[in-house]
Every structure is written in structure tokens, then in C-alpha cells.
Amino acid sequence: MDRTFSVSEALSLMPALLPRAAELVEVRAALVELQVTLADGAPSPLGGLPEVKGYQARLSELVTWFTDEGLELKGIAPLLLDFPSELGGEPVLLCWLEGEQELGWYHKLAHGFAGRRRLSQS
């Protein structure tokens, strides 16, 4: 069931991806803040254990959406997503990193994040 994206398919998914990614970043931050505060025994305006469970559930739902769409989740902090693809007949990963407003990078499978190159959108 592995999905391979054309560049245009990957780009067309971005309007749905970006708000979910932004929500994931917010939920992740709230969850960490709440967990640390509660571990220190202090009260939190974010709530208590029920809210921790709620944030964990929402984080899981968001992660599941990305994987259900066929994306590879490479990291959650920072959020790093790969779209399996092909360029010039060669398998690559179109690569999106938290904070980027568009899909503009790719790397060869063996090169990883350090081998990211700009995606020419001709």
C-alpha cells in the first residue's frame, strides 16, 4: 500500500497538510508544557491528566492523518515529512520540514536530509 506521489500530487496535498502540521506543532507544545508542569507538581492553566490524555489522543490523530495519506513521518520535533516520489526515473523523497510554507525540497533515498536539494518546479 505504499503510495508514490507525483510532484503535482504532493503539491496538491499541501493545503490540507499545512493546517494539520500547524495544529500538530501547537498540540505538541501544549502537551510537553503540561507534562513538565505536572511532573514538577505545579498546577497548569492547561489542565491536568485528562487534558494530557486529550492532547495525546489529538497528536495521535494528526500523526495518523499524515501516514494515512501515504507520507513518511521522519520526525515529530521538528515535524519532518517525506513524500515518496520519483524524479527523472529515480526514487526520491520530496521533503517537507516544519516551518516551511511550501514543498520545495527533495533528496535521494540514500542521502537523507543532509542531501536535500531544491525541487525545481518548472
SSE diagram, text form:
Layout: H1 7-39, H2 49-68, E1 72-76, E2 79-87, E3 90-97, E4 105-108, E5 117-118
Antiparallel strand pairs: 1-2, 2-3, 3-4, 4-5
Task: Describe the structure in brief.
43% of the residues lie in helices and 23% in strands. The chain is α+β, with helices and mostly antiparallel strands and 122 residues long. The radius of gyration is 17 Å and the shape is elongated.
What this model shows, in words?
- It is a single chain.
- The longest helix has 33 residues.
- The protein has one domain.
- The protein is α+β, with helices and mostly antiparallel strands and 122 residues long.
- Strand 3 and strand 4 form a beta hairpin.
- Helix 1 packs antiparallel against helix 2.
- The model has no long low-confidence stretch (mean pLDDT 96).
- It has a five-stranded antiparallel beta sheet with strand order 1-2-3-4-5, covered by helices on one side.
- Helices cover 43% and strands 23% of the residues.
- The chain is elongated.
Question: How are helices and strands ordered from N to C?
Answer: HHEEEEE
Helix content: 40-55%
Number of continuous helical runs: 2
What gap, in angstroms, lies between the N and C termini? 29 Å
Give the biggest sheet.
5 strands, antiparallel
Question: How many E-type strands?
Answer: 5
Low-confidence stretches: none
Spatial order of strands in the largest sheet = 1-2-3-4-5
Note the overall shape: elongated
Query: What's the alpha carbon Rg, rounded to whole Å?
Result: 17 Å
Mean pLDDT: 96
User: How many structural domains in the coordinates?
Assistant: 1
| Beta-strand content bin | 15-25%
Structural class: alpha+beta
Assembly context of the chains: single chain
